[in-house]
C-alpha cells in the first residue's frame, strides 16, 4: 500500500468528497496550491496549517503524483 493512503482520505461528507488530509478538513488542493506558489513546507506548517505535519504535505504531493502517473492520456493525431 502506498504511504499516502493513510494520510489522504476521500469522504463524501467532507468538502464534497475532495481528497483531504486525514483527521482534518484541509483539501489536498489547498496544500498543492501553496507548494505551487513556492512556499516551503515549514512555512506551510507554521503560517497556514500548524496542525499538520511535513509528512502530510509530502503525502499530498505523492497523492497528486500517483494520480498523474496512473492517468491515461489519449492523443488525437493532427491532420
Write a concise keyword list for the protein shown above.
Arc Repressor Mutant, subunit A; 2 strands; 79 residues; two-stranded antiparallel sheet; globular; mainly alpha; 3 helices
How would you summarize this macromolecular structure in one to three sentences?
It comes from Candidatus Fischerbacteria bacterium RBG_13_37_8. By secondary structure, the protein is mainly alpha-helical.
Description:
Pfam families: DUF433 (PF04255). InterPro entries: DUF433, Homeodomain-like_sf, WH-like_DNA-bd_sf. Helices cover 43% and strands 5% of the residues. The protein is mainly alpha-helical and 79 residues long. It has a single domain (3-69), classed as Winged helix-like DNA-binding domain superfamily/Winged helix DNA-binding domain (Arc Repressor Mutant, subunit A), CATH 1.10.10.10. It has a two-stranded antiparallel sheet. The longest helix has 17 residues, at 54-70. It is globular, with a radius of gyration of 15 Å. The N and C termini lie far apart (43 Å). The relative contact order is 0.17.
